[in-house]
Specification:
The longest helix is centred in the C-terminal third of the chain and has 16 residues, at about 275-290. The chain is α/β, with parallel strands linked by helices. It has one domain (about 5-25, about 35-305): UDP-N-acetylmuramoyl-L-alanine:D-glutamate ligase, CATH 3.40.1190. α1 crosses α9 (about 255-270). About 35% of the residues lie in helices and about 20% in strands.
């Protein structure tokens, strides 16, 4: 592990339950398939990916005093995440995420229950974590925080000169980031989340690139819009481009965006050129696509470079 200051990661940790259908899904009836549970949550996923890439990571989240919460803490500790500041709420259930996936691993629908995150990581609590911000190297957050909590996060980041990266998390949650776009060094929306952030419809590569440029015009330093099988587009004030998706067998799409975000953040932490950091992100997404777990347990810098997009 690195001896650098930790990356402070703030947001959701949850138990993911994923149902993989073996047949065409019919509404109103049961469909044969398989069901698996694993530790998840956008912030937790990013933290695990970064920890497996060798970064020092401190996770600020909340879990319940229950079996899922204990499992999340155990998994995080085993992969090197500092969970010493995770809130264990005695009277709340750990957050959960339920996903239904079709036979090719594509998401059909999902439901999330993240109330504990928004309630426990409120503005008052965040404001008391000044020492964590002072000791941090960078802040990475997801959009599960309330608007008031986010205001405190960005105020503390300004106070200590910290760079802030944000994963928009979902089209429903993404708008909470809009007041803070000018303070982000990185955001990584998919098409629907990009629309929610900048109000531009994203349907293809060209409209995705236009949305990325729009986000840059709103102050984001590096904007990446992911486009599924089309790959991704990215923009900064000085460059922009498109990177295709790496062809691979798709096992499960869950967590691919979080892996991409983590790998790009890794690149930024090590001052890589933007395009190389983005290429690492594409590689991390491909590794995760091929894995049944939400975070690929064998992800490493060597594996990322083995399949880098040229």
């Amino acid at each position: 592990m690195t001896t650098e200051k930790p990356v402070l990661i703030i947001g959701a940790a949850s138990m993911d339950t994923k149902g993989h259908s073996q047949l065409a899904i019919r509404l109103g009836t049961s469909t044969p398939g398989s069901i698996r549970s694993s530790a998840g949550g956008v912030a937790r996923n990013i933290a695990e990916n970064l920890a497996r890439l060798g970064e020092s990571v401190l996770l600020l989240t909340a879990v319940g005093n229950d079996a899922p919460g204990q499992h999340i803490l155990q998994v995080a500790h085993e992969c090197g995440i500092d969970v010493s500041r995770v809130i264990v709420a005695p009277d709340r259930a750990t957050a959960s995420y339920l996903a239904i996936l079709d036979g090719t691993g594509n998401l059909v629908m999902s439901i999330d229950d993240m109330g504990i995150i928004r309630d426990a990581l409120g503005a008052d609590y965040i404001s008391k974590q000044r020492a964590l911000f002072q000791a941090a190297r960078m802040v990475v957050l997801d959009a599960n925080l309330t608007a008031s909590a986010l205001r405190v996060v960005f105020r503390l980041a300004r106070t200590f000169g910290l760079r802030v990266c944000a994963d928009p998390t979902s089209a429903t949650l993404a708008p909470v980031l809009c007041p803070h776009l000018a303070e982000l060094i990185l955001t990584t929306p998919n098409a629907a989340e990009a629309e929610a952030l900048c109000g531009m419809r994203v349907t293809d590569r060209d409209s995705g690139l236009a949305a990325a440029h729009r986000l840059v015009s709103l102050g984001v330093q590096v904007a990446i819009v992911t486009l599924g099988a089309t790959g991704l587009v990215y923009a900064t004030s000085q460059e922009s481009g498109h990177l295709p998706a790496i062809e691979c067998e798709i096992t499960d799409l869950t967590g691919t965006g979080d892996a991409l975000t983590a790998a790009v953040v890794f690149g930024m932490l090590h001052d890589l050129p933007v395009v190389e950091a983005v290429r690492l992100g594409v590689s991390a997404a491909a590794l995760t696509l091929q894995c049944r777990e939400t975070v690929c347990p064998t992800i490493s810098l060597e594996r990322l470079y083995d399949q880098l997009v040229i």
